Amino acid sequence: MSRQLLPIASRAETTRLAAAMLRAHRGPLLISAVAFVVVGLAGLVAPWILGDIVDTVTTGGDSSRILHGALLIAAASVVAGVGTAVSVTYLAKSGEPALADLREQALDRALHLDSIRLEEAGAGDLLSRMGDDVRSVAQSLTQIVPLLIQSLVAVVFTAGGLFALDWRLGLAGLGAAPFYVLGLRWYLPRSAPFYKRERIAQGERAEALVNGVQGASTLRALSREQAQIDRITDHSHHAMTIALDVFSLLTRFGARTNRSELIGLSFVLGTGFLLVREDLTTVGAVTAAALYFHRLFNPIGALLTIFDDIQSAGASLARLAGVALLQPPPTPEGPSPVRSGTFELVGIRHEYVEGHPVLADVTLRVADGERVALVGATGAGKSTLGAIAAGLLTPTSGTVRVGGFTLDTLDPSHVRSGIALITQDVHVFSGTVRENVDLARPGADDEQIRSALGTVRALSWVDALPDGLDSVVGDHGHPLTPAQAQQLALARVLLHDPRVAVFDEATAEAGSSGARELEDAAIAVTHGRTSVVVAHRLTQARSADRVVVMHEGRIVEEGTHDELVAAGGRYADLWAAWSS
Amino acid sequence: MPVVIGVIIDRAVATGDLGELAIWGGVLVGVFVVLSYSYRFGSRLGVGALELETHLLRVEVSEHVLGPDGARTGLLPGETLSLATSDAETIGQFLWHVGYSLAGLLGVAVSAIVLLRIDVTIGVVVLLGVPLVLLLIQVVTPLIARHTSDQQAGIAKATGIATDLVKGLRPLKGVGAEDVATSRYRTHSTSARDASIRTAQSVGYLFGLTAALSGLFLALVACLAGTRALDGTISIGELIAIVGLTQFLAEPITGLGETSARVASSFASARRVVDFLRTPPLATFGETVLDEPWPELEIKQMTAGPLRDLDLAPRRGELIGIVVDDTAGSDTLVRLLRGELPPGDRQGSLTLGGYEVDDLTIDSLRSRVVVSQHHVDLFEGTLRSVIDPDGALDGDAIDEILAASAASDVVDLHPDGLQQPITAGGATFSGGQRQRIALARALATRAPILVLAEPTSAVDAMTEQRIADGIRALRHAGDSDLVTIVVTSSPAILAGADRIHLVQDGRVVVSGTHHDLAQHDAYRQAVLR
């Protein structure tokens, strides 16, 4: 099944965004850059002095010169030490806040995304970006990036030092470069597909694991747990095999790197041999050159091997940037113009698959404060109409108006403040009861929260919790039943206080035994506002001001409960089945 | 290698002897070849062991949480995932560090021996100096270990919050709380950021300290060696070898210096995994294997959670309806029948075929009693593979099951019918459709005793009636031995039940058929709507 995943930023967009985020923290970045340069320069001192000591010894110089040199090396070490500490710390002081900005912006954009769009992409896609990708970038920021910069600086300065020592020795060292390039050209095309496969395998492994853990109780009930364990084992084994292949390739690449090192060192020593024989340079200079070149091994090796880490961190960054670069939600201009709760759905037609209308020309007008129940058999289009009414889904054609304003002319935040949607998807946010409820109105005081909880009949059990409003509920806290979770959702609606409330089977998850209590709570919430209730529990229809019966995407009956029962049509059949 | 470089410079570069250059050049090549190959095969072995260990840990974690007796871990799925991935990897890294440290120590030891042979004083200085430097570095490593675990915890917390918010996106958007949610995430993201900066700071101290100390050490050795070369105690080549070796020593020193921090983080991960693996099982089971294919289930004098002295004994072939007035009561009953209510949390007896369920093997219970809970979990595959994962049913049997669960509607709606793909969680289906697929899956097990919790809470009344008739026809036609227990308050289903128990305040207050009970006030209140 092809999925429309969330966008991934191009390399240029990612770079631009990263640069913009870093620019906001450029002070520490500048300090860090200066410190890196100082460290690079300080690193040159030791081999230089060591060469000088060799020359002092061969020419029979003074021992004070050696002591002098040693003191210089010591001073350079202290400078390098301080510089290293400063560079790493300040790099983090600019990089970490930039990353934090990025992930916050990404989450913000993602939460403002059209929820239908997000569900199409799969929440898993977003979750892996907010989880794995954030972790991957964070890790590379603390481990890879400093190493990368240190190595780059070391390579550039050491090579510079080599040339400063003697340009011929420098050229000899540079002679190794083509061999390194050859090694890379052998490696990169071979490794890229491996890494891609490895990432896919890891993704599959994660999915198998998470699905297994989430559905553990169902798997056990059906005695299917072993099948899922086998599945996870297979995926994990597959990922391991690829990882080993990748590593084996890496060691072969390592051998090629070693070869280049040998060639370079031989060039330097051979050239030094000739130069000293011709008396063009000193033994000390050759010593320093050989030590310089030897010092290059580690940073070059590091640069070559972290290439992959950089690439994978870059891929993670691009995935994060893809979300962060989504359209920002427009800032509302002034307060909502919606003054009344009249609610109209006119000529609504909707097709999920072209040519298969789920809704065909539905028109529904709801007066301010009226309570309308939408009923009908499964597949009649009730939920689709509910989603359209709530502004979550844009119909193929037709208009939705609240208080006389068409939804697409209203600011999205005004749509949200005007129309609330309560679905059967209950979710308890991990946090306190208070945090669960005041999401809809941050800063609501105890009195407001308690009054909302009271209206939805939740106050008695909330007060019975060990810490009342401040009891932690959800995954890590006190477990709530689906009915209690939905009561919290209803309390949120009260605090949100919209003109229009759309309920989509909001009482279904509670199970029959909890449903009645929830229905009472839901009715209390609809008090004083326009409401559209998608219901299969016909008690909800009976208490509504008007019942609208849908069948195969159309409205087929409309009227009060009593009128429709008396009319003996489709609703009367439903009611008979329900109340038998 | 620094020794060979020193020898080349001493014997060849300084003297201009081509023969020496050829010989020692050859030795240099030899050293490279040996180093390269031993790294290649040594590290492959090491990484092989590491990856295998990581894989085995991962499997162990998933077996623990998914095992037949389950685990009371109290963790979010994302947290379990991070145990099975990043923590398992960190533990695996331990092997790498051990190998790496051994190699580092060996490098130091060999260098010291070479140096001792060249010059005893310098050799002793190195032998004493390296441990001293390592000791000094240990001052910062505990700091790193602590900050790193803070950082990991901070990032995990922020990720957990983000996951939670994304999972609750619908309710969140329903009341326009996106901005509030973002600001909550920001709080956690900021503290993760601060923890990361503190970690980087301590890493910076470590790197800085290592760089400074190994540099100072090099200065000391260079001073000693230079002076001794000047009085002719050692040759130029030996001088170069000494400084070369000392410079080389910076590498194992850095590696060894970090080792303790890395090992500490491996241990922290290991502790998390061990704690996880020690979480108690959800269910207790015994050794007795039940032979009886159609055992009778009996609950006697059961007191657990809100349930008080509950008795329940379905007879063969019966369709039992249970009406429970509060959700906590029905949850407890369902958990009890799943065998997931710890013996400490209940009093009374639960027997199957005359044996206490606690004494039976897991399989004995699960192959006889299948409990389909109210919350629906769907797994990836096709509709067919979800309903009948073993492919044990023929076309007619599948059709019967689809008809009985009214899942035939779901099949008919999609051009691919039974072959339509299902994503994990079944997000493309409505609540009612998911419920019917789960019901079909439960019916397909053909369990001798099937327990259904609220199987029709999200379907309309007409469909509910079809399901009630369907279950009756599929499982209770003629002299069937199958037992079905439905926890529900749906009149359509209850009307078809052989016996109904009304549970109020945890006790069975009245039993009978739907018809018998229709006059009972409490029953009417609970069921008729």
Radius of gyration of chain A: 34 Å
Stretches of chain B where pLDDT is under 50 for at least 5 consecutive residues are: none
CATH topology of the largest domain in chain B: ABC transporter transmembrane region fold
Count of structural domains of chain B: 2
- In helices, the fraction of residues of chain A equals 55-70%
* Architecture per CATH nomenclature, i.e. the level-2 architecture of the largest domain in chain B: Up-down Bundle
Furnish the topology, listing elements before pairings.
The complex is a heterodimer of chains A (580) and B (529).
Chain A: H1 11-23, H2 26-58, H3 63-112, H4 115-121, H5 123-165, H6 167-174, H7 177-214, H8 216-221, H9 225-277, H10 283-324, E1 343-353, E2 356-366, E3 371-375, H11 382-389, E4 397-402, E5 405-406, H12 412-418, E6 419-422, E7 431-432, H13 433-437, H14 446-455, H15 459-464, E8 472-473, H16 482-496, E9 500-504, H17 511-526, E10 530-534, H18 538-542, E11 546-551, E12 554-559, H19 561-567, H20 570-579
Chain B: H1 2-13, H2 18-66, H3 77-118, H4 120-137, H5 141-167, H6 169-174, H7 178-230, H8 236-277, E1 297-304, E2 307-312, E3 319-324, H9 327-337, E4 346-352, E5 355-356, H10 362-368, E6 369-372, E7 381-382, H11 383-387, H12 395-404, H13 408-413, E8 421-422, H14 431-444, E9 449-453, H15 461-475, E10 483-487, H16 491-495, E11 499-504, E12 507-512, H17 514-517, H18 521-527
Parallel strand pairs in B: 3-10, 3-11, 6-9, 9-10
Antiparallel strand pairs in B: 1-2, 1-4, 4-5, 7-8, 11-12
Helix pairs in contact in B: 1-2, 1-8, 2-3, 3-4, 3-8, 4-7, 4-8, 5-7, 5-8, 7-8, 12-14, 12-15
Protein name (chain A): ABC transporter ATP-binding protein
InterPro entries (chain A): AAA+_ATPase, ABC1_TM_dom, ABC1_TM_sf, ABC_transporter-like_ATP-bd, P-loop_NTPase, Type_1_exporter
Pfam families (chain A): ABC_membrane, ABC_tran
